[in-house]
Amino acid sequence: MNPDFYVGYQPVAAPAIRRFVRVASITLGVLSIGIATFIIWAQGPFAVSRFDFGLYHDYEGELIEWPYPALIGNNTRYLLVGPGKYGVADLVRGHDETRVQLRGALISRGADRMLEIEPQSLHFSSNGPPPSRQIVDLGSVTLTGEIVDTKCHLGVMNPGEGKVHRGCAVRCISGGAPPGFLVRDEAGETRLLLLVGSDGRALGREVLDYVAEPVRITGRLERSGSALILLTEPRDFRRE
């Protein structure tokens, strides 16, 4: 009988089989650790972002409705969204260029700011001057990027973009979160543009078929304060 023959019911395996199993186990263990380390390294770090979940603070400033509800206060522009996957357009409709007090939880990524507000905290008044609404026309552009929901992308979730986030982004945009167009320059730096229709209307369900995919968009680029706004039509979007 071959002494190295494996017999499953024997309490001890043959010496050659024990050596093989030992070497194979160590090799596979080291290889697994190496592959896992490489995958972690290749992914890179998450973007530096923030969501003060449940930490609501008082804010005051001027409300603007276009292109999406925002608060202008302390020289900062905050996009406004509601709890969960909802926007606040219906809550603030008709209060453009009025002063507002509210409570909100800060969401931020880079220089972009957003507040998840407590709807019951909204208090409007007509006191104070209207906000400066200077619009700068930056001309026609053709850009390639990805459509994201601004709430998750700005800090509620990481990575907040890409195929892994498609389902969540679709629900957020459907619920009224402003759609954004994430573009990168030659140096790899990202900028988030707010997407609106060519006539200035808010976009929502019209863009859902293109969320989380590489898309080429042609439109007119405008600047309103710190916000970049891309006026375009979904029918003209082209997948890359």
Please explain how this structure is put together.
The structure is a single chain. Strands 2-3-4-6-5 form a five-stranded mixed beta barrel. The protein contains four helices and 13 strands. The longest helix has 29 residues, at 15-43. It has two domains: 49-125, OB fold (Dihydrolipoamide Acetyltransferase, E2P); 135-239, OB fold (Dihydrolipoamide Acetyltransferase, E2P) (Beta Barrel), CATH 2.40.50. The model has no long low-confidence stretch (mean pLDDT 88). The chain has 240 residues and is an alpha+beta fold. The chain is elongated, with a radius of gyration of 26 Å. The protein has helices at residues 15-43, 89-92, 150-156, 166-174, and strands at residues 49-51, 57-64, 70-73, 76-81, 98-109, 112-117, 123-125, 135-149, 179-184, 190-197, 214-224, 227-232, 238-239.
